[in-house]
TrEMBL record:
Compartment annotation: Cell membrane
Region of interest: Disordered: 1-25
One family name in Pfam for this protein: Cation_ATPase
InterPro entries on file: ATPase_P-typ_cation-transptr_C, ATPase_P-typ_cation-transptr_N, ATPase_P-typ_cyto_dom_N, ATPase_P-typ_P_site, ATPase_P-typ_TM_dom_sf, ATPase_P-typ_transduc_dom_A_sf, ATPase_P-type_domA, Cation_transp_ATPase_P-type
Reaction equation(s) it catalyzes: ATP + H2O = ADP + phosphate + H(+)
TM helices/strands, residue ranges: 80-111, 259-280, 286-308, 709-727, 739-758, 779-800, 812-832, 844-867, 879-897
Positions of the Cation-transporting P-type ATPase N-terminal domain: 20-94
Native source species: Rhodococcus kronopolitis
Protein family according to the UniProt entry: Belongs to the cation transport ATPase (P-type) (TC 3.A.3) family. Type IIA subfamily.
Primary localization: membrane
PROSITE patterns with a match to the protein in the record: ATPASE_E1_E2 (PS00154)
Keywords: ATP-binding, Membrane, Nucleotide-binding, Translocase, Transmembrane, Transmembrane helix
Membrane topology: Multi-pass membrane protein
Protein name: Cation-translocating P-type ATPase
Amino acid sequence: MARTETDGTHPRPSTDTRTDWHAQDAEAVVSALATDPQSGLTAGEADERRRRYGPNVIAAEPAPSTWSIALMQLRDPMNLMLVAVAVLSVVIGEIPTAIVVAVLVGLNVVLGTRQEVKARASVDALARMQTPQGRVIRGGTLTQLDATELVPGDVVQLEAGDIVPADGRLLTSATLETQEAALTGESAPVAKDPQILAAADVPLGDRSNMAFQNTSVTRGTATMVVTATGMHTQMGQIASMLSAVAPSRSPLQRELDSLTKVLGVIAWTAVATIVVIGVIRGQDVTMLLLLGISMGVSAIPTGMPTFVQAMLAYGARQLADAKAVVKNLTDVETLGATSAINSDKTGTLTMNQMTVRSLYFHGRWYTVEGEGYAKSGKITQVAGEPVPDFTLLAYGLCLDSDATVSDTGEVVGDPTEAALVVLAAKLGVDAPRTRRTYPRVATVPFDSAYKFMATFHHLQVDGDTQFVELVKGGPDVVLARCTTAFRPGRQTVPLDEVREELTVATRAMSEKGLRVLAFAARRLDGREDTAAADPMSLVDDLTFVGMVGIIDPLRPEAIESVRIAHEAGIAVRMITGDHAITASAIGAELGLGPGAIGGPELQAMTDEELSAALPDLHVFGRVTPQDKLRLADLMQKGGAVVAMTGDAVNDAAALKKADIGVAMGSGSEVTKQAGKMVLTDDNFGTLITAIRLGRNIYEKIVSYIRYQMSKLFSLVLLFLVASIFNINDGVALTPLMVLFQHFFITLFPVAVIMLDPAPPDLMNKPPRDRAMPIANRRAFVQWLAYGVLQFALTLAAMLLAPGEMSTTEGNVPMTTAFVVLSLGSVLGGLAMRRDPESGLVPPVLGALKILSVPIVVTVFAVELGFLQDLLMTTSLTGGQWLACLGWSLIVPIVVEADKALRRRRRRRAEPVQPIPAEVAVDPRRARAR
């Protein structure tokens, strides 16, 4: 017997940790909850329990303030280094430099803060889903209350159209069905009844004697006793999981963090070297600080956060145009790293619209065309067969169901019955008019106890009005009540002659993942009174009419999208609340990899066993929200970058855990808030398009960092050499010259990189190796080599230029170095926009138009008086300009020669083999080429 606690006055239920209510009989549950099924709780008992358990609401975490987010952005290492530079600039009187650097820090903080403001809205959205009303028995009176007022032990009445206000154990029910797709992911409504379930470990979707908060009642009536409210409900547990899942930093964020640390070490080591040399030489403190600021500005990638943000924003706009909206800019890049997709089935890969796909009628097979609740579509058959008379089947489809479907596809009632109404429309029969013409004389309503529905009508059959019984239900139940079966031409034969044939037909549809419903009929002329008095007594001696196979059909683009994902080396797994057999059949139609497993088997496996089995498992059925979360976690630990798609509340925690959570636009608000991206067209194919765009953006970021780092290395070397050899009193360029380079010169080559079209073979490569960061050894060697090239040319131009050097007024050598560095950056950016492909191939005219701007800006910086005063430049002669151009042209020539040599070596090597089949389903075995 279940225990109760007492406080000396009233029995107190112990509900905080109970999860096995389905395994207790109704009387035991009522006793444990200390309530009464007829009179419910008294007002005083309800108040006491509300004080104990709190209101029936989903608790929301307070969102971080904008100021706290901004402070977190300010603590970024790169911004801290820039703040230090600004402070030092003020100390030595370099006010213009301090202002420019401060503006840059502010820009970085504002952009970063904007992207984080909505980071923790998931639980708030879940709270907004709270059901507003419930019919509760309090003190023996049925009362309409706000759902927030419910407490454990309340007795609640439910009927079709209600939203269940809390989790509860059913006490009584009549033909009750609930739609639990939002919680379990199962498409079809679930039949419910109060019968006890023997096992305590029954999966959530199979707890047929329980009703769950925020699921909807699609049929019947029931009385339930509330067993859990607020955060103790299944919805509340999902909210708890959302709160426990910490947002993870994207791969790009982690790589840029590492790169920033490396650059910080380089920058401050270089600054320390310059300061030590200056102290040894006895240089003035102000001059040393100026040198340190110049060195710091040159070595810190001041524009990198802004430029990367701009590139990601450009990618976000591209994604929005493709109907994929990202919340945070870094998620654009994360898409490009995706190596595994865990997709929900219902509403994501499928249309979430039950559809009759196959028809077995009078011993013959027919194919039903059309998708969803659209009433257009044909019934096709084998050539040469006579056109059948579907009259009896059409009667069953229309009259033995209650759902309605409008011409626009809006459904009222059970989705499975809606599929039958749509099939009737495809047969040319209008369900509402048929129901009005042939009203019911008697009815046996559907009940999960006997799993069929029967209705009795006066119908037109073979030109006469006859009293006919129509029966619809599971094939095993209907066949058990049949004695004969129709054959072609409406001939009847004993059922035993065709029983094996019907069993084979049922199995064939089930193995395809179809939900099978059987139809039967019986003529009962003259027995109207018996039917009205006891209709159940007449549900036997039936004649089998036919069967239909119903499925939630795949989205038309899903199969092609899965194929493209496999070609790109991305593993696609389907994770659903449906049974594993149904899910496996759909997985086969999609072309997923081998292996299907159900929730109970999955839960029985250890993490080590599941991780080892994952490469051979691609379909997961009957899973719980916890299972989805666990799968995402294990795949991430195995090195995969996981994208998780879904539209229901039960997907929310896994979406938040995944590297890129993808919510459907028509899905729940909770899911959209938990995810990092929303597909506004609910199209799985849009995710593949988004991944293609994400890969392209990553390639552009790599190109940008290659370009930026080469420039930074050239500046660091230039300042170090100038300091060590005391060139121009150790100051190669002024701080404002360096900032001018960052803002007004490099900006335009970056724009060229951003606008460069994607290579055509982008989705024929496997996902990049996550273990290979942007700042890998080979990349560093390339950056350094290109940096040395630009440094050497700039230094040579400076040393060979005529005139004396001075740090107090403009001079030709420093101006020459400034111009060569600018023009070399522009022309080098054109060559570096692609690698290892040539940067000088079409489309190149658009790039040249953009790059003409920094060339003109460089001329203005040298020749305009106010810019000369600000930057300490001086005018150059025509010959000096030609010399600068000659030095600068060496940069793209050497870069293109290096890439041509690498392309030649690659062509000489063995040709790249196609991605093996096992890689297509296990991207962990693939490595980026």
